[in-house]
Design a protein that fits this description.
The structure is a single chain. By secondary structure, this protein is mainly beta. It contains 3 helices and 33 strands. The strands form 5 sheets. Strands 9-8-7-6-10-15-11-12-13-14 form a 10-stranded antiparallel beta sheet, with no helix packed on it. Strands 1-2-17-16-20-5 form a 6-stranded antiparallel β-barrel.
């Protein structure tokens, strides 16, 4: 077994040959997002090299296009429902590791190296990966107290204990099941803590470029893991990817039904999920004095009017888009007629777009250019008050352009 990355798999060159099979039974419903952030629902057949093959209903004519035409592939339909049900995964409490380049893995902590400079992590699909402590931002061990891990103060190293206490300082190393932490006290006391006492760890390592150490495509799996792939091939309902965390030439096979989306490498242009960007609610976010805060589920943003949500966007943000629909309209029956709200998109104090949603127009695709790094989404109640005024924003993404990327 390789100790410096993912478990060995067949060389990707053999998988590329398999991808050349002209037509295999089976295709997966997906939504393609093009360079203008416009969606297209198709059945995905093959991705190989620089090409993508797909067909649409009703004629089912197979179309071959340059892969560079698209920025993202999102699994939809029945495959999407299987993803959300967690098929193929243990959907109970999970441990997480988040890396400085934005990759994240669910799975299990398998111990630290003898020199304390590396940790071994096991993912249910990718196998065992060895990570340098310099690569790590957060290790969340899945303890009930670790929900606050994302809020641990940045700057220095922080250890969140299972009893809720926090210890700041400098992590000297992790050996086996023990972590050595130099505390921030005047004496610079060094303490040894066993992992069973720890809920989460946040390292003071700075964020690095979102390239994944040479990985181009960003694959988000059903369990929420996000990994970079140097190369990938899709044939019918199977994906073969070469993780950037593993040795060159070694690949893993994943059922396409266990993939949420693939952010495609595209010459300095990339998509960031809106749900993963910093945000803050302005005002009370309450309807009839009852708190109705926004929440995220399966990469979907849920809003209840009235609410104002402000996002801080990354450098290079030039456009955002997403599908906005009234929530649970079919289940509301006759009460659906009460649903009437307006989504207002603002930036730099200006209104960028306005869309009214009601029973006769329950879905809109929003696609607006951005002039600043400040994005505000306001959901206003209609004449009937905040009754049934709930929306879901899906497939929402911000287009980031790096210098020289056009």
């Amino acid at each position: 077994m390789a100790r410096d990355g993912v478990r060995p798999r067949p060389d990707l060159r053999f998988l590329l040959l398999a991808a050349c099979i002209p037509f295999l039974a089976g295709a997966t419903p997906v939504v393609l997002m093009d360079q203008a952030l416009e969606p297209r629902a198709v059945y995905l057949h093959v991705i190989r090299g620089d090409e993508i093959q797909h067909y649409s209903e009703p004629d089912r004519t197979l179309v071959t296009e340059p892969l560079s035409k698209y920025l993202r592939v999102t699994v939809s339909g029945g495959a999407r429902r299987a993803v959300e049900a967690g098929e193929g995964f243990d959907v109970g409490p999970r441990a997480w590791v988040v890396l400085t380049d934005g990759q994240r893995l669910t799975g299990a902590f398998m111990g630290g190296s003898e020199d304390g400079e590396r940790v071994l992590w096991r993912h249910p699909l990718l196998g065992e990966v060895e990570l340098s402590l310099d690569q790590v931002r957060v290790i969340d061990l899945g303890h009930e107290a670790s929900g606050a891990a994302a809020e641990l103060a940045s700057g220095g190293d922080v250890v969140l204990l299972a009893n809720g206490d926090r210890l700041g300082g400098f992590i000297e190393g992790i050996v086996g099941e023990e972590i050595r932490l130099q505390l921030d006290d005047a004496a610079r006391t060094v303490v040894a803590l066993t992992m069973d006492r720890i809920a989460a760890i946040r390292m003071g390592n700075p964020q690095t470029a979102l390239t994944g150490g040479g990985g181009g495509h960003r694959v988000t799996l059903a369990d929420g893991s996000r990994v970079y792939a140097r190369a990938l091939v899709v044939v019918a309902d199977a994906m073969f990817l070469e993780p950037a965390l593993g040795p060159t030439g070694q690949s893993v096979q994943v059922a396409l039904g266990q993939v949420r989306s693939v952010g495609l490498s595209s010459g300095g242009r990339r998509l960031e999920p809106l749900t993963e960007l910093p945000r803050v609610v302005e005002g009370s976010a309450a309807a009839f004095t009852v708190a109705m805060p926004p929440y995220i589920e399966h990469d979907r943003l849920h809003l209840h009017a009235p609410v104002v949500l402000r996002f801080t966007l990354p450098d290079g943000a030039v456009r955002w888009a997403g599908r906005v629909s009234l929530a649970g309209l079919e289940a509301q029956g006759a009460a659906a007629a009460w649903a009437d709200c307006e989504l207002v998109v603002r930036g730099d104090g200006r209104v960028l777009a306005q869309h009214r949603l009601n029973a006769t127009q329950p879905v809109v695709w929003v696609n607006t250019p951005l002039e600043t790094l400040d994005l505000i989404l306001e959901l206003r109640e209609g004449l009937n008050g905040p009754v049934m005024d709930r929306v879901v924003i899906e497939e929402a993404a911000v287009l980031i352009e790096t210098p020289g990327g056009r």
